[in-house]
Specification:
192 residues, mainly alpha
Length: 192
């Protein structure tokens, strides 16, 4: 058994003993991405243009990071820990590719993109991303190495997007302008 598997069992073997902890981990495993989407929607509708810009960066980071994951799965396959070791899992999951974790990649990419633009919101979402990563191991769906790879993919993606800021800023300004135009027509009010 390699170190990655040993670390997996150190975390996963904590599951199944305390219902409240299991429920928290199941929540983050199942609902982290919808939670992130809800936060981004709230920020979009309640925030100013700078906040809307931040939401677009977080969204593009999440999507781009998941595309990187997809490319990785084409060239490298790792079975999930419950397939290799036939261990119990807290919630069912398909026996598909384990490396890297899409849930962790998406949440970390969005959290990093938010943190670059708003430290407080980014830090709160980073905590959610960390809990998501831990939860994926806790429930038995991923190895710790899958989560570490997700963090690397997320950091690389956000760094790349930051380097392309000159391309994204004008496009996002245009999108935000279109949103204001459409919203003004719907509500019959002009944007101030």
């Amino acid at each position: 058994m390699n170190e990655n598997a040993k670390l997996f069992f150190m975390v996963h073997n904590l599951s199944g003993h305390e219902k409240l902890l299991d429920d928290i981990m199941i929540f983050f495993t199942q609902d982290a991405l919808p939670l992130f989407a809800a936060v981004l929607l709230i920020v979009w509708f309640l925030g100013n243009d700078k906040m809307k810009n931040m939401v677009l960066y977080a969204g593009i980071a999440g999507v781009a990071a998941l595309l990187v994951n997809y490319v990785i799965t084409i060239v490298y396959y790792e079975p999930r820990p419950f397939v290799t070791y036939h261990t119990s899992i807290l919630i069912p999951h398909a026996a598909d590719d384990s490396f890297p974790s899409d849930h962790a990649t998406g949440t970390f990419a969005m959290a990093f993109a938010l943190w670059v633009r708003n430290r407080k919101l980014g830090l709160a979402m980073m905590l959610c991303a960390v809990l998501t990563g831990i939860s994926r191991v806790w429930v038995g769906h991923h190895y710790p190495g899958d989560i570490a790879a997700s963090i690397i993919v997320a950091l690389f993606t956000v760094w790349t997007i930051q380097k392309m800021k000159g391309l994204f800023d004008p496009a996002f300004s245009t999108l935000i302008g279109w949103y204001h135009d459409i919203w003004a027509k719907i509500t019959k009010k002009g944007y101030k």
